[in-house]
Amino acid sequence: MSDETTPDDVSVIVIGGGPAGLSAALFTAKNGLETTVFDTDETWMHKAHLFNYLGIGSVGGSEFMATARQQVDDFGVDRRQDEAVTAVNESDDGFSVETEDGEYEADFVVLATGANRDLADDLGCAFADDDTVDVGVDMETSVEGVYATGAMVRPEEWQAAISVGDGAAAALNILSTVKGEHYHDFDVPADAERVFGEHVAE
Ligand SMILES: Cc1cc2nc3c(=O)[nH]c(=O)nc-3n(C[C@H](O)[C@H](O)[C@H](O)COP(=O)(O)OP(=O)(O)OC[C@H]3O[C@@H](n4cnc5c(N)ncnc54)[C@H](O)[C@@H]3O)c2cc1C
């Protein structure tokens, strides 16, 4: 579970609350970063039924999203459903994010808007030759502190499990940056017993 080495006031804004965005938010909130998600609920998951998500036999996409939303809410994510982000800009202290309802500041931004790459373009992120946002395995863009995940970083080959992995990779890189050393979010059976009071098979 989260330790006590995380500074109190580090903030992350995640734009897009599909599998990629909620995965990033889960990891950052769980590990003590102030995390806000803006989402307009147009995730492709509402059209999907998953048979290919490892560890889950069969689940409707909307049902999957309901569980994911509950999971991030339980870890304290400020999930602003149906609040669209209209602009993101670099500011003196990090990033300023404008929505239909207000303006917010963050130290890190995770872009998770599906195949829509407009905000990455506006921020000046480098693009690859195939018009995807250019990132490495840590999902950081050419703009330091801005991460791109999910469909925007691949021309096709779009799958929920891949988006969830992208979000996790972005979040872990943010946590490593904040903590100043490589970070693992590893829990053990005793953590589950402590949190849920349940016996967990070893
Ligand atoms: C018909 C269909 C069937 C599919 N079946 C499967 C399947 O069986 N298995 C599988 O693994 N995958 C399947 N997929 C693909 C899967 O749904 C996607 O890979 C996955 O949803 C991508 O997740 P994401 O988080 O990258 O983007 P998305 O799920 O598209 O989420 C992006 C979110 O960002 C929000 N957003 C966008 N712009 C803004 C903004 N400016 N401000 C705030 N919010 C914003 C959107 O409203 C949306 O909720 C299917 C897709 C379709 C269309």
UniProtKB/TrEMBL annotation:
Highest taxon of source: Archaea
The keyword Flavoprotein is annotated on this UniProt entry: yes
Coiled coil: none
Keyword terms: Flavoprotein, Oxidoreductase
GO MF: oxidoreductase activity
Domain FAD/NAD(P)-binding: 11-46, 62-163
Keyword Transcription tagged: no
Cited PANTHER family: THIOREDOXIN REDUCTASE 1-RELATED-RELATED
Name of the protein in question: Pyridine nucleotide-disulfide oxidoreductase
Organism: Natrinema hispanicum
